Amino acid sequence: KTMCSGKLQTALLAASYFVYLLVGAAVFQALERAAEKQEKIAAAQMKEAFLQNFTHLTVAELEQFMQNLTKAIQNGVYPVGNESKIEDSNWDFSNSFFFAGTVVSTIGYGTLHPKTPGGQIFCVFFALFGIPLNIVFLHHVGKMLSLLCKKLGNYLYEKGMRKKKIKFLTLLFFLSAGILVFLCLPSLFFQITEGWSYSEGIYFAFITLSTIGFGDYVVGKQPGRSYFSYYRSLVAIWILFGLAWIALLFNL
Amino acid sequence: SLPVAAPDLLDPKSATQNSKPRLSFSTKPTVLTSREESDSAINVMKWKTVSTIFLVVVVYLIIGATVFKALEQPHETSQRTTIVIQKQTFVSQHSCVNATELDELIQQVVAAINAGIIPLGNTTTQISHWDLGSSFFFAGTVITTIGFGNISPRTQGGKIFCIIYALLGIPLFGFLLAGVGDQLGTIFGKGIAKVEDTFVKWNVSQTKIRIISTIIFILFGCVLFVALPAVIFKHIEGWSTLDAIYFVVITLTTIGFGDYVAGGSDIEYLDFYKPVVWFWILVGLAYFAAVLSMIGDWLRVISKKTKEEVGEFRAHAAEWTANVTAEFKETRRRLSVEIYDKFQRATSIKRKLSAELAVNHNQDLTPCKRTLSVNHLTSEKDILPALTKTDSIYMNGLTPHCAAEEIAVIENIK
After folding, report:
1. Residue A79 contacts by C-beta under 8 Å, 6 or more apart in sequence?
2. Distance from CA of A96 to the nearest CA of B (A)
3. pLDDT tens across A141-200, in order?
4. Locate the Potassium channel domain: which residues (chain A) (predicted)?
5. Taking 80 as the threshold, does the pLDDT of residue B355 lie above it?
6. How large is the average pLDDT for residues B113-122?
């Protein structure tokens, strides 16, 4: 009987998952398709305008240049500005450390990714062992933080509050404190350092901490901006504690 | 555990009389204090565990960073020099183009590529990334948290909806994944039970059976969820073997870089291709979750074994220290008794000699008080009062007025 109900449950879940995807697809399409069309037209116009400005430039030559440029950009190289800027490497130690962190936390932005076969093979094994390690770590941090929660709960209990109220209050406290510290404050910070709008900062924070990690917004990659040397490490620490906070929320 | 004074092992009386441990503080431990103590002990233990694991994670990341840097930086440098040369060639070939305008163009190209539009050829005729099939695909990347990123919402509304959609969808998908994992486990369990039965018939040990079934699980799953799809991707998408396997692992661990995306290139795909890819992702994720949790269990077993060994080592060390201390105390005690006895002997001989000298001068013979010295190891109580009554200031009960017979007494006692 239980096996039957288990199968039924799974089938129902699969069906609702499918429906959920369909609904999401329809909404995303409605919201995004028009904007995409605009951007495609803009890209075409950009090429047109460039060609018009420099009339002796042939289409083939521009196309060739664009191909080279696209390849470079997809490899994470933004050849903007003069040579000295181009000296900054994407694979210096602090950036590689940040990359290793995005692998192990399964965020995986993708703006930086290994291109060499050796790098890809190592990435596979690094992930297979690093992800469980990360999960075990977050699990323990979550447990420790929930101990703090319990202490707070005990303190309130001794003050004479009812258990249900305590549970609700502690959950509320950690939820709101976490949202403030891990979503709102960093967004303000990113407004200054990255020049994003506040809502863009919140979107980036959410996409990062949920480990979805699209890579459309990535810290430290704005062309034409200079970042202080431990910027990415600071962001990595924020990601680490934010993930621990989410682990705590799951424990509560 | 509460500290207890060690009973005096050399004193058999204390062993029988003192059943209660001699404590310098209250013998009534309250329940609260013991729980607080155990709580704080657990807190300390958890803090130690967490900081150890944190250290391990940081070291793991540092190792990864160093290796990635060594592997990728040379390639990146060559890419950079190439594009710089190409840029310079372009500028020199077309001298009317000035550097600032070119940089503007490049920035626009960067923005376009980040928006998911490749500015090659006729961009307007490129396949849309937001037709229903691709939007469905995108919704999937959101709630599985894979998040390839080759397409992502650009509008304000799209981003807000994405956040809400993820908040609800990720837990939903989590439940589904658990259910699928259960079903997979049941199916696999039924299949492996038959294999295990045959092994049991062959009298193979339990641990060996478990190891064999784990290996079969890994092999089977690898073929079904990794190797087979990789071959299909290689064939349809035109990737190399390594790229296909790399894509499979990066996707099923939900890292999802987006450098390779099945169904993301401008190829004419079959109609059922994308739905099949989605079904594969669903089941493959469950398989990978099982594999990753297995690796996590191994790590936990290794850390537990290390903890046990460290604990055993500590216990051994403590035992050894306690033994050494006890032996040292016993030796010290024995030595002090021997030294005292020898001292007594020396002084009594000295007295004897001086007494003999005195006897030679003085013919008075006073009968000595014959008292036996009490051997403190005997438990005869009648000797005690005699000891207390004697006037002798020496423990052996003899006075310096005694004659040669007392030496024999001393010798007997010895």
Report:
1. A69, A72, A86, B80, B83, B84, B87, B106
2. 5
3. 777 777 877 888 788 788 777 778 878 888 888 889 889 999 999 999 999 888 888 988
4. 89-145, 171-251
5. yes
6. 74
Distances (CA, A) of B218 to A117, A248, B383: 24, 31, 82
Q: Do B68 and A122 touch (CB under 8 A)?
A: yes
Taking an 8 Å cut-off on Cβ atoms, the answer to whether B60 and A130 are in contact is: yes
Which chain B residues touch A41 with a CB distance below 8 Å?
A: 123-124
CB A104 within 8 A of CB A136: no
The whole-angstrom separation of Cα A91 and Cα A232 is 13
Q: Which of these, A223, A138, A192, A11, lies nearest to B182 by C-alpha position?
A: A11
Enumerate the residues of chain B whose CB falls inside 8 A of the CB of residue A25: 132, 135-136, 138-139
Q: Could you tell me which of B149, B146, B169 has the C-alpha nearest to residue B248?
A: B146
Neighbouring C-beta atoms of residue B13, cutoff 10 Å: 9
Alpha-helix residue ranges (DSSP H) falling in B255-400: 273-361, 383-389
Contact B172 A99 (CB under 8 A): no
A1-75+89-250 has which CATH code?
1.10.287.70
Q: What does the domain layout of chain A look like in residue ranges?
A: 1-75+89-250
Helix or strand or coil: residue B142?
helix
The matching CATH number, chosen from 1.10.530.10, 1.10.287.70, 1.20.1110.10, 3.40.718.10, for B130-302 is: 1.10.287.70
| Contacts of residue B403, Cβ cutoff 8 Å, sequence gap at least 6 | B355, B359, B365, B368
A78: left (phi over 0), alpha (psi -120 to 50) or beta: beta
